[in-house]
Amino acid sequence: MASTTLETEVRPSPPSGRTFLGHPRGLATLFMTETWERFSFYGMRALLVVYMSTEAAKGGLGVPVATAAAVYSVYNAMVYLLALPGGWIADRLLGARRTVALGGLIIMVGHFMLAVPSKVFFFAGLVPIAIGSGLLKANISTMVGQLYAKDDDSRRDGGFTVFYMGINLGAFLAPLVIGTVGQKVNWHLGFALAGVGMALGLVQYLLGTRHLSPESNVVAAPLSRAEGRAVLRKAGLWLAAAAVFYGVVVGTGHFTVSWAIWPLSLAGIAVPALVFARIRRDSALTGEERSRMGGYLWFFLAAAVFWMIYDQSGSTLSVFADRNTAGSLFGLSFPSSWFQSLNPLYIMALAPVFAWLWNALARRGRNPSTTAKFSFGLLMIGASFLVMMLAMAAASGGVKVSPLWLAVVYLVQTVGELTLSPVGLSVTTKLAPAKYASQMMGVWFLAVTAGDCVAAVAQLLLGDDVVGSTWYFAVQGLLAIAAGAGLFAARGRIGRLLGDGR
After folding, report:
1. Does residue 270 contact residue 475 with C-beta atoms inside 8 Å?
2. Running DSSP on this structure, what letter comes out for residue 501?
3. Minimal CA–CA distance to 148: which of 133, 163, 135?
4. Range of weakest confidence among 264-278, 309-323, 381-395
5. Which of 13-27, 111-125, 252-266, 302-316 has the lowest mean pLDDT?
6. At a CB cut-off of 8 Å and minimum separation 6, what does 147 contact?
7. pLDDT tens-digit profile of 198-209?
8. CB-based contacts of 468, cutoff 8 Å, min separation 6
9. What is the DSSP letter of 92?
10. Which residues of 242-278 are buried (b: 16+ CB within 10 A; e: fewer)?
11. Residue 109 confidence class, pLDDT cut points 50, 70, 90
């Protein structure tokens, strides 16, 4: 592949007469793309585990709950793991603009595969959705930043706030629409509706690309012909090895879904460990940067514990909502998938409150440290599963508990998320070594991958008798609380490792 160079510095295009809420017109294109993509993602997610674990006689797949939860955990982990090669493809091959378009197309195909009433098509459809999400997720936020000049901090922050609202708007609406259609009309029609949502997002994205920054079309570091051949050779060898291995497994009649879950789970745990080891051993890092990475590792591990529990909102909590929670409140009846709309609703309501709170505390010199915020986030996520323990106990004997139990669980989890997730993004950019400045955001997302893969391994090992039980929630809740307390106790040591970065 021929190498090209950029003759002049690429700058954001000058603003035209039209703006979007005072921001460049391209923000509207990216806002709507992300809204529709999240609509498809969260709509499908609201149905995924419930559909898999529903009896075949009722239109589901009849998969054991533990296996269904593990499939969901690994799928979610791969979305974030594949953001790393997604960013690489944009930087080295296609540029962000074309990579996002390709990702949207692949996601749409995956959703329509889920709509086919076939078990093979269903599980195969999860693969393109994960791949496409990795391509899109890694690059669409980058294009938001490219709309603004480097020194346009105030509008840049505001632009990302608007974009973030698009994420939560799509996540809020999806379970109400797709969840209702899937559970009340037809499962596969619901999955098809997710594909239609991504198709609408892709069409408006292609129509609005002229409003994006020219920088989004640039391949930042294109591969040379020699590099391209080397990449194709290595990729071909790995794909051939996987094809031969799974061909033998399928051909001998031994293939089950566990043959896919176990390798992906172990890879999702091993890759973050290898990435951190490579960064820590890099001789190009200064002593201060290496020390900061030692401090950052504490935050990474804390985040992995957090996401291990938090992301079960789409698996074990979905099953609890479907099987153990009453489907009506104050005279209003609703499908269990509607519970998935609570988290984005809480975020839209509470995110401005937390932003104001941190600013107010900072002005008084009382803003908590990053370690304290992470500790509080772990305490909250642990407390949410202790509430789930009580809810599960209340549901013993087939009793349908009040929806208010889950409403409280999701509220506590959202408070924890708002004290950990945005802070984690911020501290990642602050502590990133100069050599890895553009890669550290992908490293942060690996915490989700690691946490979800640990959850998948635990779910497979524990099985249906334990997954979703009272003790299942109690042990994880206590683990997170212990981790939060341990992190807070180690704040002095972490502070010394961070040095000026704290």
Report:
1. no
2. G
3. 163
4. 264-278
5. 13-27
6. 12, 23, 24, 26, 27, 30, 159, 212, 213
7. 999 999 999 999
8. 65, 69, 316, 319, 320, 392
9. I
10. eeeeeeeeeeeeeeebeebbeebbebbbebbeebbee
11. very high
Place of tokens 């409003």: 211
In this structure, the number of other CB atoms found within 10 A of the CB of residue 142 comes to 18
Cα distance between residue 156 and residue 126, in whole Å: 34
Per-residue pLDDT at 157: 66
> Can you state the angle between helices 96-114 and 26-53, rounded to 10 degrees?
30
Q: How far apart are CA 410 and CA 404, in angstroms?
A: 10
Q: Which residue matches tokens 């632009």?
A: 159
Amino acid letter, residue 263:
P
Tallying the residues shown for the chain, one arrives at 502
Q: How far apart are CA 321 and CA 75, in angstroms?
A: 21
Structural tokens at position 268: 């999702």
- Confirm if 490 and 413 have CB atoms less than 8 A apart: no
Half-sphere exposure of 361 (CA within 13 A, CB side): 11
21 vs 36: CA distance, rounded Å: 19
> In whole angstroms, what is the distance from residue 262 CA to residue 459 CA?
11
HSE, CB side, 13 Å, CA atoms: give it for residue 464: 8
